[in-house]
Design a protein that fits this description.
Helices cover 26% and strands 20% of the residues. With 375 residues, the protein is an alpha/beta fold. The chain folds into 2 domains: 256 residues, Vaccinia Virus protein VP39 (Rossmann fold), CATH 3.40.50; 97 residues, no CATH class. A hairpin with a 2-residue loop joins strand 5 and strand 6. The two termini are 29 Å apart.
Length: 375
Amino acid sequence: MAAKVRKIPKKGKHEWNNIYFGDSLKGMKNLPDACIDLVMTSPPYADMKKYADGFEGFQPDNYVQWFLPYISQIARILKDTGSFILNINDKSMDGFRHPFIFELIYAIHNIEDYCKIKGIELEKVDMHGLKLFERLFWNKGKYLAHPKRFGDKVEYIFWFSKAKNRKFNMDPMRLEYDSKSVKRMERPLLKRFVREGGEEVTEYKQGGEGSWAPNPEGALPSVLIEEGAMHHVHPVEEALPEGTILITEKFDSDFHGVVQPKEGDSPHPSTIVTIGSEARRIAGNHVAVYPERLVSYFIQGATDAGDIVLDPFMGTGTTAVVAKALGRQYIGYDQVEDYVKTAMERVEKGPYVKELQETAETSSEDWYSLKKNAD
């Protein structure tokens, strides 16, 4: 029997692992402060796509002002170690790209100053505002051809957080080293470099004995998110040539002390993520679905098992499906009742992607033991 669609509850009545029917702005206002580990979402775009409830998107000139009240609530309910990951796309108008995306990012990064400049009154502007941690690019691998424009294959992904101590799990986001990089690491070692936040650690090895050692978990992630970034990389120690020197004992860092090739020398976990659309497989009547692998990539990178993931524009439930499969709790909202029904059905059926199905099987027992009360 199909699960009953639930409307947004009153303050103090929310439960985790539910998708509510209604405006998420109202729903988030009823959540307590600092209760969410990750907000990941893809809001309605500033385009003319027609959604199931007749909504056709906002015009770019009005988009930022419409979205800011949601941002204010997201900042309030996020934990200090939490993240907000936003998938969004821009729009071409009259032969030019509209720059509203850049206005939006500035507004989020400096929400209080922006509101003062624009004369916007928000019910509550969180004093610990969101800051832009990273910008990434999702390469969808396809585009609509236009005779006078470049093929537009990418959408933006912006990663915001409140503080530098944000939760960030590097290893699940790493890439596999290519053969050229592994070959290059066999060269005699004169210096070792570990770079993080602009800092450089150097160690000299007399005589150049040994070689560069790749991190056993793979190369750093890149701002270009490729298909390969969606799969955890198996350890590489056994494949290393004789004489390779691991320096785990010497450097206890976020990189596990293993030498990292300089940027540009290897396929970092990229700022461009290449994943094809899954819309025809799982979308139902929804016109804009992002892939399970894309959501999985960021949930693994920004949360731990048992953490709480919120999607304020849940659509047909991809965020909830993946969160549950990975042993996280979820909560979400959507204003289209049919989408909520589809999302709930998908959560019950589980993920479409095979590796997530396998993960869901191993994590289901722990997931069902998680607490339900949101307050």
